[in-house]
Amino acid sequence: MNAYDYIEGIPMWAGKKHSLEEIEDFLQELKDPQKSFCVVHVAGTNGKGSVCAFLTSILKEAGYFTGTFISPHLERLEERFLLDGNVIGQEDFRQSFQEVYETAKKRQERGLGHPSYFEFLFYMAMVLFARKGVEAAVLETGMGGRLDATNVIKDPLACAITSISLDHTKYLGNTIPEIAGEKAGIIKPGVPVVYDGTDQEAAQVILSQALRQKAPAEAVTGEDYVREKASLAGETGQDGLQEGFWIRECLGGRAGLRLCVPFSAPYQAQNAMIAVKTARVLNRRGLKISSEQIVRGVANARWPGRMEQAAAGVYLDGAHNPGGIRAFEEAAFEIIQRQGKKPYLIFGVMEDKDYREMAALLCEKVSWQAIGLVHGKSSRGASLLSLKEAFEPVYGGPVYEFSSAEEAMEKMKVMSGDGLVFCAGSLYLTGEWKQALNKVNADKGVNVHD
Fold first, then answer.
1. Quick check: 175 and 198 in contact, CB under 8 A?
2. Among 73, 149, 189, 195, which residue has the least CB neighbours within 10 Å?
3. How far is residue 316's CA from residue 319's CA, in Å, rounded to a whole number?
4. Whether residue 327 has pLDDT greater than 50
5. Domain locations along the chain
6. Domain 3-299 class in CATH
7. pLDDT digits (tens, 9 = 90+) for 257-304
8. How much is the pLDDT for 63?
9. Each residue of 382-402: pLDDT tens digit?
10. Which residue range or ranges hold the Mur ligase C-terminal domain (predicted)?
11. How far separated are the first and last CA of the chain, in Å rounded?
12. Domain range 308-442, CATH class
């Protein structure tokens, strides 16, 4: 049996979503693998993957063998499972699949339902981490929080909630407070939570839930750090291409840690600080994490597809909702101003996203020389016609339609010359852009940076 085909054959959005009690029952049949390691639970709309990346790197620096469960993947299913920040191999994937598959089959024979797509992958992560002897696990929620499969974890060491934006409104609610309420569902009695406090509506909901659960709560706002003018642009890092900046932590009017944030996007400062405060919570709760290990962990974090400089002059970002696009445009504008080069945009998005508002946000500050639209391989992608109509009222420059990510990358790279190409709109498309960029650069002997 091909494990990859089997998993991809499980409906992602259809079928029965099991209750937390049913998920707990399935885990019991797997001998409760989730009880063999401590857990950091991370929810939010934007930035939760980045916070997971920072926390993974910090825990690794502190000497803890760390497992990380994230979603979605960019190119391969294995990317959802990390051991000490590294994507697992095919054999570990196969063994984890087999154990979950056999348990699911036995339960089906007893008339019990099959796990959903996300549930199946979550079970795989739990058995993988237990089998490999993981000491600390960083778990990212799939969607929401309150009813998410990962919320079966009853006693995490800490919870973190990142910025809240309008996304998955069909399932989570149509307002920021409603969505924040779903995300805050991961808060457990007495378990400390660190949360993004920049949106007052969301922050109020999260804090109220923390008070109900008697959970210590700590907000992170722009007052918790200052960004220094010095940047890493032009320096050579371990990837050959180095982007990033420095921030200084503010501790009640006195200076705290000086942190190197190894990403282009300014929004990563907020994510880094959420991770830093969460690491301090972990230290207070029994894990030994020093300030030096926090500094090294932040500096060594890697997170593909989030304003990633994938090649010289090419940036990939998985921003796929209004909040993410707003942060993307701010980051792109800063990069453009710093480098003084002409910008070009490649954009594609899923049909259930608010791409009309996203189009308007994309054109608020940046004067794109041209915009390329792409549908991608997913059947869920918004049509090129719909995307073109979304940009017509807000953008007067040339708009090109491409049948594939490869065609878009090839032609926009030629069109841009020595300018900058930015790709945004979908995490699912980010993997296609990376593959397309590798093909475009293959004849030149240049590879996309991992």
1. no
2. 189
3. 9
4. yes
5. 3-299, 308-442
6. alpha beta
7. 999 999 988 899 999 999 999 999 999 999 999 999 999 999 999 988
8. 98
9. 899 999 999 999 999 999 999
10. 305-426
11. 30
12. alpha beta
